Amino acid sequence: MLKYAAMETKAKQLTLFEAACLIAGIGIGGGIMAVPFLASLNGIGTLIAVMVAAYFLSLLLHLMIAETFLRDGGTRQLLELFSKYVFRGRSNAALTWLFFTLLALGFISNLAGYVAGCGETLAALTGVPLRGGHLLTYAVAAGVVFFGLKAIGISEKIAITGMGVLFIALGIGTAGADFKPLPVAIGGPKEVIALYGMVMFGFACFFSIPQAVEGLQYNRRLVPWSVALGILINFVLVLVISLLSMLVSDEVTEIATLGWGESIGQWALAAGSVFTLLAMLTSYWAVSYAMAVIVMEQLKLNYRLAWLIATLPSLVLTLTGVTGFLGFMRITGGAIAVMLAVMVVPALRNCRALHPDAEPGFDIGVFGGIVFQLIVVAAYILMAAGSVVPVR
Question: pTM of the entire structure?
Answer without folding.
Answer: 0.78
